[in-house]
Amino acid sequence: MNARQPTRRVLINTDAKNEADDQFAIVHALLSETLDVRGLIAAHFGDSRSSTSMLDSRKEIDLLLGHLSMNVRVENGAEGPIPDEQTAAPSAGAELIIDEAKKDEGPLLVAFLGPLTDMASALLMEPSIADADVTVIWIGGPPYGDYEPEKWPEFNLSNDVAAANVVFRSGIDLWQVPWSTYVRTAVGYAELDEKVAPCGPLGRYLVDQLHEWNATWVAQPIEHRALGDSPAIGLMLNPAAGIYRPVAAPTFSSEGGYLPGGKHTVRVYEQLDTRYLLEDFFAKLRRFAAHQERQ
């Protein structure tokens, strides 16, 4: 890495063992020269698939760091959702967000690839960070307008509706990638076998765990997976890699629907440059694998 290359300060909050796409996003971020990843935070993903979901995410993060031979700070987030909209679920992950937000080191980008629990907790614990130079990028929420979601409620939102309400009401700079946008990042098995699997043990693992997840959890015939968490990394790298509109910040009903907007606005990404997003990842993974082979 060129020591003079400017970087963006980044935190990534990830429910890494929820599905099979967080892994691609984490690797993409850590292989990107302009992202200074100050920490990874293990997030819960409810209890429908595991009673230890946050710890499962932590184990997956550690596994990926082993494949990458990288030493990056990792903290545990909350084990479950916040109790209500006035009460935090304190964690080392929330403390890390607060610590980085309060530093006088320029902008901070915080990506949430699952529920917003740890961001809501950080805001409840230290409300002043809503006015700091912090941008939250959230993969989550149902479609706006007349789109019909495949599943209701949207999964990341459903795992902590109260947390989403805290964050959306806070006035913090917020970029949202809703379901109708993040599902348009599909990659087929054939492309994964051609561009990812040959990239050393890490590439093989990424493809194998994706196949395994689909075989376990998807009943219908399938030969693809949406890399729905990767847009957060693409937007960190290139905020212009998408088309967005400002929306009066909504809140959410207990059923997961939008309620009328407030006085703040959020940036809602409606389209993404998926060619850039995916090809950048493929190229960086190939480069990493080639470097590993030479060592």
TrEMBL record:
GO terms for molecular function: hydrolase activity. The keyword Hydrolase applies. It comes from the Bacteria. Pfam families: IU_nuc_hydro. Keywords: Glycosidase, Hydrolase. Residues 10-240 form the Inosine/uridine-preferring nucleoside hydrolase domain. This is Nucleoside hydrolase.
